[in-house]
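Next up, a specimen:

>
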Amino acid sequence: MINANRTRVKDLLTTHTLDQIVEIWGWVKTGRVGKNVAFIQLSDGSCFNTIQLVIDNTVNDVDVKQAVLTGTCIQVSGKLIESQGKGQSR
């Protein structure tokens, strides 16, 4: 089943859709869980690049430790924002 609301990683990286809610599906390339947040590199196969997800660990409806396992297929929706890290692209 194809979801019309789904956005491909390739499209997110080539268009300027900052500060909008987007929905992406893909596979976890890498992930790590910190004290308050988890970081996931997600790929959907639309390009070689990945997109970084930052997830609040305090949200109780998400099993973050299961979501960050390499190869896990996940569906995520959230606001696309520019990276706050120095020297990082969006």
Q: What stands out?
A: The beta strands are 21-33, 37-43, 51-56, 73-79. The radius of gyration is 13 Å. The chain has a mean pLDDT of 82.
